[in-house]
Design a protein that fits this description.
Layout: H1 20-40, H2 46-57, H3 63-69, H4 74-86, E1 90-91, E2 105-106, H5 108-130, H6 137-152
Antiparallel strand pairs: 1-2
Helix pairs in contact: 1-5, 2-5, 3-4
């Protein structure tokens, strides 16, 4: 029985380690490791930090909205919110005014913790940005956005 020829990759690449998806995953894993390291010093996880950043920008977000924005499930998002609430970094009403949404807000301590950790996180972002010529940053950001949009269709 004849074998079918192997499909051609979508772009020239020496092997799978040079494919776009592989390199994106490698960059994501490196970013996650760097973020975990700096956040550990502040007793936060990446989803907790992302939640604090989002609530600073958009007070009152619901668990569902925060989960979507931080790339976790609703159940995991609720665990993140409970941990932040137990740590005194956010507040949420005990019951929902309507529906099931309980809007979250940063506490004074939450704002202080976010401010304390931002320099370290922005340092990670700076290390990434310095690896790319400044004139290519805008194109990279647009390309990453286009990649995500193409896969979300």
């Amino acid at each position: 029985m004849p074998q079918n020829p192997a499909p051609e990759p979508p772009h020239p690449a020496k092997d799978v380690t040079h494919h776009v998806g592989y390199l994106l995953k490698r960059a994501q894993a490196a970013l996650r490791g760097a973020m975990d390291k700096v956040l550990r010093e502040h007793r936060l996880t990446v989803p907790q930090y992302a939640t604090l950043e989002l609530l600073a920008l958009h007070p009152g977000m619901s668990n569902a909205d925060l989960a979507r924005a931080t790339f976790v499930t609703r159940q995991s998002g609720n665990v993140v919110l409970r941990g932040l609430q137990d740590a005194g970094l956010i507040t949420r009403p005990a019951t929902a005014d309507h529906g099931r949404a309980r809007p979250a807000h940063l506490t004074e301590e939450g704002h202080a913790r976010l401010t304390a950790v931002q320099a370290a996180v922005y340092g990670v972002e700076q290390r990434m940005a310095e690896a790319i010529p400044p004139q290519r940053i805008a194109a990279l950001l647009a390309d990453l956005d286009h990649i995500a949009a193409a896969l979300e269709e």
